[in-house]
């Protein structure tokens, strides 16, 4: 970690020796600390307020046992959490994830990142993240609905439009948000914008489904414009086959790029001539039906590379859009050797620390998730605005505002990220977000 200075070493050393060491949270905090601690030290008010030390400890971590009955009538027990990291600039805000790999560490790191991401959007949203170690794979629709209801039986008292506003994340889409919202509404006896990503018939925003993936591509277009080029004809690798991946692929194709891949945990779908919108729609339909993508119809021009990730295929742009730590050091070395020009994180923290180091040393522009994938939560913020106004905006208005927000985030990140004639997007994002959080935290006293 050659970027780490004495200040961040000191700050992190206590965390590193903690017996409950949380590796994902540690990596996320380390990334931020090395960029902002000097700013904090040089600002009397920030230093006195110990801003980063306060953000490093969530306001609270709520932990729940979720008990429900499966289709066979057997009792199932899961563990769930809501990490409310900070509401200094707005109500707690961040998604809910259902996946067997979910731990308190995962959610603590995601909640911390969410504070910075939400600050970058310019909208009044604090940071939170939640989820459960529940695996929806192989579960029936009824079982997933019962699980959502059992979870809300526990979590509903802590959720509300001005309190904490969850949304979807991995394995939590519009359908699950509908069930969660329904259960919240029933428990609390009120209707309000307590969730985003809702169905359009009960307060959801147009374009929320597309927003994260589209926003990634709007951000990449800004990076390319900064380099004096565009997406036209660029070869793009996308990983994942979910909400973020398929919408990033769709928008990149619409902007003239040649998207070569999507992927899942079993392998990579390769389109040598570039994915068509029909091929992307096929992947979306398979995912929605809970079916795999290993046997695509011949007319779509796809090949499934069993057991492979997309990263060995030569390309100009990489968009990891599946999950954290999905791209490691050796994959980064292959991308670098194949002449990659930029990478934007659709997923949250998809690069391992080793992969980040390879990219940095090679001078490859890397847009961190907190900037590049902020479009999703930005449109969630617009959904909260629409709910508060009791109005519905047109898709065109939301999309235009989304593009505008991504361009503003890009400008803010570039303004803080110029180092030795190049742009360090990670540093720019950390500092721009930190300043906003620090101003709010110092202004509100010691609490
Ligand atoms: N949905 C949203 O609005 C936002 C999501 N994100 C992040 O984007 C990432 C993806 O989230 P969604 O698309 O919403 O989830 P999703 O549940 O729609 O899709 C995730 C997909 O990734 C695939 N996957 C999981 N692990 C993989 C691996 N190791 N290799 C290849 N594929 C893998 C799974 O097959 C799954 O279909 C996550 O890191 C999430 O936190 C970030 C910002 C907003
Ligand atoms: O829309 C939201 O509130 C949350 C989106 C999210 O979980 C994320 O940005 O990682």
Description:
The protein has 447 residues and is α/β, with parallel strands linked by helices. It folds into 3 domains: 1-57 and 421-447; 60-192, 3-Layer(aba) Sandwich (Rossmann fold); 209-367, Rossmann fold, CATH 3.40.50. Helices cover 48% and strands 16% of the residues. The protein contains 16 helices and 14 strands. The protein has helices spanning 6-16, 23-42, 44-49, 51-55, 104-121, 141-155, 174-188, 208-226, 243-254, 277-288, 329-337, 353-362, 369-372, 374-389, 395-417, 425-443, and strands spanning 60-69, 75-86, 92-98, 127-132, 164-167, 235-239, 258-264, 267-270, 303-306, 317-320, 342-344, 365-367, 418-419, 422-423. α11 (329-337) links the parallel β10 (317-320) and β11. α2 packs across α16, α8 packs across α15 and α11 runs parallel beside α12 (353-362). The radius of gyration is 21 Å and the shape is globular. The two termini are 33 Å apart. The structure holds 1,4-dihydronicotinamide adenine dinucleotide and 2-oxoglutaric acid. Homohexamer. The record marks 169 as: Important for catalysis. One of its GO terms (cellular component) is cytosol. NAD(+) binds at residues 212, 243.
Class inferred from helices and paired strands? alpha/beta
Low-confidence sequence ranges: none
CATH topology of the largest domain: Rossmann fold
Radius of gyration: 21 Å
Order of helices and strands: HHHHEEEHEHEHHEHEEHEEHEHEHHHEEH
Strand order of the largest sheet: 9-8-7-6-10-11-12
Task: Please report the first level of CATH classification, the CATH class of the largest domain.
Answer: Alpha Beta
Oligomer: single chain
Helix content: 40-55%
Question: What do the pLDDT scores average to?
Answer: 96
Strand percentage, roughly?
15-25%
Largest sheet: 7 strands, mixed
Shape: globular
CATH architecture of the largest domain: 3-Layer(aba) Sandwich
């Amino acid at each position: 970690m050659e970027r780490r200075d004495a200040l961040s070493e000191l700050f992190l050393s206590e965390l590193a020796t903690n017996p409950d060491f949380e590796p994902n949270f540690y990596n996320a905090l380390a990334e931020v600390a090395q960029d902002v601690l000097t700013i904090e030290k040089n600002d009397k008010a920030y230093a006195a307020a110990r801003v980063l030390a306060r953000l490093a400890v969530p306001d609270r971590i709520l932990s729940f046992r979720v008990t429900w009955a499966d289709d066979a009538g057997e009792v199932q027990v899961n563990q769930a959490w809501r990490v409310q990291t900070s509401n200094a600039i707005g109500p707690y805000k961040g998604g809910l994830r259902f996946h067997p790999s979910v731990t308190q560490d995962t959610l603590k790191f995601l909640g911390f990142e969410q504070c910075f991401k939400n600050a970058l959007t310019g909208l009044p949203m604090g940071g939170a993240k939640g989820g459960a170690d529940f695996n929806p794979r192989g579960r029936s629709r009824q079982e997933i609905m019962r699980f959502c209801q059992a979870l809300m039986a526990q979590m509903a008292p802590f959720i509300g439009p001005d309190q904490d506003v969850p949304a979807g994340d991995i394995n939590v889409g519009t359908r699950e948000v509908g069930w969660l919202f329904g259960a919240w509404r029933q428990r609390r006896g009120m209707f309000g914008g307590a969730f985003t990503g809702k169905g359009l018939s009960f307060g959801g925003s147009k374009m929320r489904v597309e927003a994260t993936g589209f926003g990634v591509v709007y951000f990449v277009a800004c990076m390319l414009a900064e380099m004096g080029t565009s997406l036209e004809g660029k070869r793009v690798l996308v990983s994942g086959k979910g909400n973020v991946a398929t919408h990033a692929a769709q928008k990149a194709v619409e902007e003239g790029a040649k998207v070569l891949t999507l992927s899942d945990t079993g392998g990579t779908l390769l389109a040598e001539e570039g994915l068509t919108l029909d091929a992307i729609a096929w992947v979306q339909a398979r995912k929605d039906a809970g079916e795999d993508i290993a046997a695509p119809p011949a007319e779509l021009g796809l090949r499934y590379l069993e057991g492979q990730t997309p990263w060995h295929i030569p390309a100009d742009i990489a968009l990891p859009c599946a999950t954290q730590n999905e791209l490691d050091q050796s994959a980064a070395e292959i991308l670098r050797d194949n002449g990659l020009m930029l990478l934007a994180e659709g997923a949250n923290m998809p690069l391992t620390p080793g992969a980040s180091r390879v990219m940095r040393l090679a001078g490859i522009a890397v847009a961190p998730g907190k900037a590049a994938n902020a479009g999703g939560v930005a449109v969630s913020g617009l959904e909260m605005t629409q709910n508060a106004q009791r109005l519905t905006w047109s898709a065109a208005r939301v999309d235009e505002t989304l593009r505008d927000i991504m361009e503003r985030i890009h400008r803010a990140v570039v303004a803080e990220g110029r180092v030795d004639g190049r742009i360090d997007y990670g540093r720019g994002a950390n500092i721009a977000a930190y300043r906003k959080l620090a101003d709010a935290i110092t202004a509100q006293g010691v609490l």
